[in-house]
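User: Can you predict the 3D structure for this chain?
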Amino acid sequence: MRRLIKKIVPVFQTLTATFHGYQKPRFACREKARTVDLEVFVPGVEAGAVELAVTADDELIVTARKALPVRPNFQAAAFEAVQPHYQLRVQLGDQVDTRSIWGALRDGILTIHLKKSARAGTPQLSVA
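Assistant: Here is the predicted structure, written as structure tokens:
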């Protein structure tokens, strides 16, 4: 068993060391009278490591980067190397006012408030 682990772990570390992709976080959507709240679950992320961006075609991109679990001059163990950062892409409809989007992070839950525009009924959100 130890020989098998000694063979697998270096290969696993090599594969995961080059992986810098994003994982799609879990999320929940709650509609209120004037807003739509999008709750994105991003454990291990601090408030300064969250980016919200809206593209020209009304796509909301939420990027949350985890803090480094080990010091930069040490090699990460296999578990730390495989935990990628989070990214969620949401296509907003024209019912959302993209100029008034704001968010707050608390206990690993990022709450994004999307204000409904005046011409809106129910906003149509689609996740990419």
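The domain at 2-127 is CATH 2.60.40.790 (Immunoglobulin-like). The first strand starts at residue 22 and ends at 23.
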